[in-house]
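Q: I'm writing up a methods section and want to include an example of the input and output format. Could you take the sequence below and give the corresponding predicted structure tokens, formatted cleanly so I can copy it straight into the document?
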Amino acid sequence: PTSNPEFIIGHHADNHFIYSDKTSLYGSPWGQGRLLSFFGRINYDYKEKYMATLVMRADASSNFAPDKRWGYFPSVSAGWVISNESFMEDMSSSWMDFFKLRASWGRNGNQAISPFQYLSTIAFDSRYFPGIDKTNQTTAAYPNIMSNPDVTWETSEQTDIGLDSSFLGSRLGFTFDWYNKTTKDWLIQAPILGIMGTALRLLMEATSETVAGKFLYRGETISGISLME
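A: Here is the clean output for your methods example:
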């Protein structure tokens, strides 16, 4: 301890000190938005043959009006490992190592927009010269958002159906996926001319759909083995 009133804390061995006249502490709120989330998941696995997962997520974002803040995003997936079935034992022991069918469906959300889009806010970040005196500037206020009280979560719904397989001691493998994604209520803002004097309200009109397929093949050189035997 020390009697010096400027001394706060210190470590005499290393000569590390903090002095009140040389140290300042400050802070501010982190960002203007908040996100509250709840998440739950249930997994099921029966003898590594039948598998399922159920997920439920609920999110609330302060970027939306109080009655539009909550979004609910469920998902479910299931898999069937056919190669572990008893009726597949002969094939599994000879040339098939693994064969699985799987499917999944789910929703997720996007709230990545500037805060307070549901309000008509006023900005004070402009300056102007009042009257004929051009030497002194005055802070100016203007409406910077055309509000949209109905703005809410952008939602994507995704479906995937596929299979995974491997053969001949994992030397040969095939994977197939069929994928569909539909995005609704895009959070977009159309460009406007500067003469409008403010930003256009956030739009939620667009919908897009993506359908894709994927086929992967993995193989190694096989010597001394004939697939026709």
